[in-house]
Design goal:
The complex is a heterodimer of chains A (519) and B (130). By secondary structure, chain A is of the alpha+beta class. In chain A, 57% of the residues lie in helices and 14% in strands. Chain A has a 5-stranded antiparallel sheet with strand order 2-1-5-4-3. Classes of the chains: A alpha+beta (519), B alpha/beta (130). At the A-B interface, α8 of A face α1 of B.
């Protein structure tokens, strides 16, 4: 048996059972055969011995007169009587000194075989031994008996149980050789039939075991196939054929398959649902994006309309105002000229508002170009412009040197213009008011602040401060579009920062902001 | 000396203001055209060219900027001085218009002061200064 088939026995339950059964059957058959053969052979041997003993006793009795008289004819007669018997190989009659008185031809003992003692003295041992003497040889069994001069016939007990020659008048010995072959043949025959029976038993048993084991293992194999299939994602039930453990196992497996299948179905359904939801979501996102794009396009169209179509009629009004004031100055009184001036100023204000709106909406779509920006330089530039715009004003600017920030320089300029511009505007009534710009670090964040000592405002209205078109002062007092701080907030939001204001009426205002403070 | 101006403007009010301001600046011969298509036909015809074009940007059929690119792209008209006159303050439009040579941009309304400055910048002198 090579290593592979050995492994197969190790792996296969049926092979194990089969192998064990064969071993068991072999052992049982061998045991029975040996016990039977042993007892049969013992029986055969006993009957052989009994036959030999009887025959030799008969020979010794019949030969007693011939031996006594040494008459060959009588001896021959005695010999002939036993040699005709089946299985007798040879027979002989010996003188009590060991010499052959008469003997038959054929296989058997020669005179040399006459039992001798250790000193080579013939018959001594025989003489001392109980008779009959049975000598088992390779191919035959020799039986020896004493021939006595007694006239009497041996009793059946003596004939079967033997008799001691002691005290008897021994006149010779009889020998009979029986063929052992008969006995051996019978043993061989016995062994052969045992062997055939064993083989038949083995084959029949093997077949029975094979089918029995198959009945056990085939559902197991189907179960294994089912489990393997389950591992690969298949859901196949196995047939339940019996009510035993294996059948219950198959039923349990089927339950498992059903449960798993239900779970898998549920999972797939959920997956499909998620997929559907995702598709729906994507569709909605695409829809919203499209809507948003539409809205953006509309906004751009509106911007264009605002920048052109709203301003074009305004420009006409301004144009006519100009013509009126220039060409008809002589024909109008003072009040008429004042009205024209107000019209002109009002239309310019509307123009400012339109421009501011455009700037704010443009910021909504803006992207920042991040760079290092010197807020000090920006503040100084703005301050210079403001001072030049109204040289009469006494207000001072105090700008902290080397304030550096990260951000979009154009947008930060808008921030500085608006914050410093507001501070300037609201400081108009306090000629001594100082306008400050600087930075400080609060809670690890750099905070930039513009402070003034102007009119300030009531903090309860601060909520709307950074919303577009919200004003805390009336326009006649402090002109403006109401857009500036909304733009500041939008820019600071784009810079991921925060902006807030603190104020006290009559004391002043400070507006502070951070840049990229979320990062 | 320039005595012939082409005013390309679709709005009658703006045309009126334009004519008036131009007249006050000494220009007497002013031809006005209402849309871009007609302006192109006029400029690229055999008729005599004006010595100055005043061009609105928002025009029917052919826009002002496209018309300007045609004017600058044509050998006959490429050195014609142009004043772009628009109500738009869109920096992109302003930049697009002023990228051409011999072109000035003016925001509406047209005023005598602004026109004077523009004429000076373009080196155009009115035929009959007042």
């Amino acid at each position: 048996m090579d290593k592979r088939s050995l492994l197969k026995i190790e792996e296969s339950f049926s092979a194990k059972i089969f192998f064990l059964f064969v071993l068991f059957t072999l052992a049982v058959v061998a045991a029975f055969t040996s016990v039977y053969t042993y007892s049969r052979s013992k029986e055969l041997k006993e009957s052989l011995v009994r036959e030999g003993q009887t025959l030799v006793a008969l020979l010794a009795y019949n030969a007693r007169i011939g031996a006594f008289t040494e008459n060959p004819t009588l001896l021959r007669e005695a010999l002939d009587e036993v040699t005709g018997h089946k299985g007798v190989l040879s027979a002989a009659i010996y003188h009590k000194d060991g010499g052959v008185l008469a003997q038959t031809t054929g296989i058997g003992a020669t005179s040399a075989d006459v039992p001798k003692n250790a000193d080579g003295q013939v018959l001594d041992r025989v003489a001392e031994a109980s008779f009959p003497v049975v000598l088992e040889l390779r191919d035959r069994v020799d039986f020896w008996w004493v021939i006595t001069a007694q006239q009497r016939w041996l009793s059946p007990e003596e004939m079967f149980l033997g008799t001691s020659p002691a005290g008897r008048n021994v006149i010779g010995y009889a020998r009979l050789s029986l063929d052992k072959g008969r006995y051996g043949n019978e043993i061989n025959h016995l062994l052969q039939s045992s062997l055939i029976t064993s083989v038949c038993c083995l084959i029949a048993g093997s077949l029975v075991v094979y089918f029995f084991v198959r009945r056990i293992t085939s559902p197991l194999n189907r179960l294994i196939e089912g489990v393997n299939l389950l591992g690969k994602g298949g859901y196949q039930k196995v047939p339940v054929e019996t009510n035993d453990e294996i059948g219950r196992m198959a039923a349990a497996f089927n339950n498992l398959v059903e449960t798993l299948k239900a779970r898998e179905d549920e999972r797939r359904r959920a997956e499909e649902e998620v997929l559907t939801l995702n598709v729906e979501l994507e569709r909605k996102v695409a829809e919203r994006t499209a809507e948003l794009k539409n809205a953006n396009r509309e906004l751009e169209l509106f911007n264009y309309a605002a920048s052109h179509d709203l301003r074009a009629p305004l420009a006409r009004i301004q144009g006519f105002c100009e013509l009126l004031s220039k060409d008809y100055a002589g024909k109008l009184d003072e009040q008429g000229l004042f009205f024209i001036e107000r019209m002109s100023i009002t239309s310019r204000q509307m123009d400012d508002i339109i421009r501011a709106m455009l700037a704010l909406s443009k910021l909504n779509r803006a992207e920042i170009l991040r760079a290092r920006v010197s807020l000090t330089e920006l503040a100084q530039g703005v301050a210079t412009n403001l001072l030049e715009s109204d040289p009469q004003r006494q207000n001072r600017f105090v700008i902290q040197p080397e304030v550096i920030a990260e951000g979009d320089v154009k947008m930060l300029r808008v921030v500085m213009e608006n914050l410093l511009g507001n501070a300037w505007k609201f400081s108009a009534k306090n000629p001594q008011g100082v306008i400050e710009f600087g930075s400080s670090v609060i809670d690890g964040k750099t905070v930039f602040c513009v402070r003034d000592e102007g009119v300030g405002f009531d903090m309860q209205y601060a909520d709307n401060l950074f919303s577009p078109f919200q004003r805390l002062h009336d326009a006649s007092e402090f002109p403006g579009t109401g857009i500036g701080l909304a733009m500041v907030r939008r820019i600071i939001e784009l810079h991921k920062g925060q902006v807030w204001a603190k104020s006290e009426e009559g004391k002043g205002t400070s507006v502070c902001f951070t840049l990229f403070s979320e990062a | 000396m320039c005595d012939f101006i082409l005013l390309i403007e679709d709005d009658p009010d703006d045309e009126f203001i334009g004519r008036r301001v131009l007249a006050k600046n000494g220009f007497s011969r002013i031809e006005s055209i209402r849309d871009g298509r007609l302006a192109m036909d006029r400029l690229f015809s055999e008729e005599p060219l004006p010595c100055l074009v005043i061009l609105d940007l928002k025009l029917p059929k052919v826009g002002g900027l496209r018309l300007l690119s045609h004017i600058r792209g044509n050998g006959k008209t490429k050195e014609l001085p142009v004043i772009v006159l628009s109500s738009s303050s869109n920096p992109d439009e302003i930049a697009a218009a002023t990228s051409y040579p011999l072109t000035t941009y003016l925001c509406k309304p047209l005023t005598e002061m602004a026109l004077k400055d523009a004429l000076a910048a373009l080196g155009v002198n009115p035929f009959q200064p007042i």
